[in-house]
Amino acid sequence: MTPPLHSAALSAADHLRVDGVSRSFPDRRVLTDVSFTVSSGEIAALIGENGSGKSTLLRIAAGVDEPDVGSVSAPGSVGLFHQEPPFALDLTIEEVLADATGPVRALVQQVEDAGQGLADGRPGADTRLHAAIDAADRHHAWELDHRVGRVCDGLGLAHLLRDRRVRELSGGQVSRLSLAWFLLRSPDTLLLDEPTNHLDDAATAVLVDLLRGWSGPVLLASHDRAFLDEVGTTLLDLDPTPRPFATVRHDTDSPGSGFGITKFTGSYTAYLRQRQEERERWVHRFRDEQAELTRLRVRARDDHIVGRPDRPPRTEGRAAKKFYADRNAKVVARRVNDATTALERLEREQVRKPPARLRFVGLGGDTAGEGRTPTLGDSTASSSGPLLTATGLAVAGRLAPTTLSLHARSRLLVTGPNGSGKSTLLSVLAGDVAPDHGSLTAPRRLRIALLSQEPLHRDPTESVRSAYAAAVGQERAERTPLATFGLIAGRDANRPVGALSVGQRRRLDLAILLADPPDVLVLDEPTNHLSLLLVTELERSLPDYPGAVIVASHDRWLRDSWAGERLALEGTA
């Protein structure tokens, strides 16, 4: 729980400082010697592959987790927005909002008390009044009621009855209410883990505006590329970078095995270009250094012999033999010393081997390793007509009557604000939710599979490899191994599912879905939780999928580049 707000003023020297933080778990190392500073008013964005330690670092910064070594200091109160809501689920929405605004309202009371103290002539009352006013200003106490309305309206919560219990809300509504709680709590140091996952454009715009006016340091992790471009004043990349270490002290197959952190001031778009160029230089330097190490080792070995040992001196005299022996010894010693010194220096200063990077193989017909395309039902295999037709599909209170037609190679993007019914529509099409009204016409053997917004629940003690085999069947798992897709690193296949990050668990769900590719691939917010690199690769491969694809997304980058059909939902009202 976030501590009470401090009344002491923040100064320009009040920064979030992370100094030499390292964190390991029993089966892997995540963070190694991470140091950086986030100044008051700065918005720093953590980026990196799934499993690189972004959420772990945020938890350490919030004091929820402890580093193995290193330290963290943060000014004032600290608030962490992450997976779990910061309030009890049996509270009403009104009670949650009252709990969120309580510390800020207390600041107003402090101003009144200090003002009364000044009027009563109490010693030090003027200093306390100045500090109280400063704290109230910093936390926007004077406009709190307006701020509550603005945040609730912007995050799509205004239409909810305030006496509703939190447990009665959907997962997305709980997530947005949690974000509202943190924003209204107005901590001095704000930490956000994937804050835009359940936000539409209007809600994201409100969040962007609030963050830009935040007085304290802000550290966030996000896979929303447009959001990063809008708010990020600094990028902090946790993926491995070239740093000179004499010995390999990390797992090169682990996304979180890098030393330190790469800081970049500029847009995410610009950083993508720089990072690609930097990696190419790293790969070339490592290759050249390894070739030079091989050459120096051969030289150090061969330089022990000078001249032609099979050709004796031109005279057999003892003095001549001694002369040539002494000369050879000196030359050998000098050459061996030169080669050894150069070898030791290079071994000490060489860059680490660039870690193997996961590369998603795409959604093409060979994704499953069988070289086949999805097989449609017999009645439609040769038909060019509609594959799936929905007429007036509706779910009371969740989805207004919706009609659509899908062909075998359709690419349909479903858009709309929060609450418009996007996820409900996808669940109805996938057969997970029964419609109250309307009809759905499809061939009897049509196969539809849905990647839901959040990872599916699986036995947390089961290994990733075993969970994959259990979901797709042992025979298919042997024919189409998990490694086929480039979604799960080799070292992670034997880890328990419960030890994976949210993004890694969603990668597992996608691999299971693709092991037997359906006729209709349904993706609900496919960019949620997935790494920036995977999101880009997934988008690029959408045209290659051999069946139909339906995507529901708030991601502005995906929507801006979409070349297929679109369906805009307006809501149930």
TrEMBL record:
Keywords: ATP-binding, Nucleotide-binding, Repeat. CDD domains: ABCF_EF-3. It holds the Pfam family ABC_tran. InterPro entries: AAA+_ATPase, ABC_transporter-like_ATP-bd, ABC_transporter-like_CS, ABCF, P-loop_NTPase. Residues 360-384 are annotated as: Disordered. Residues 16-274, 376-571 form the ABC transporter domain. GO terms for molecular function: ATP binding. This is ATP-binding cassette domain-containing protein. The lineage of its organism: Bacteria, Bacillati, Actinomycetota, Actinomycetes, Micrococcales.
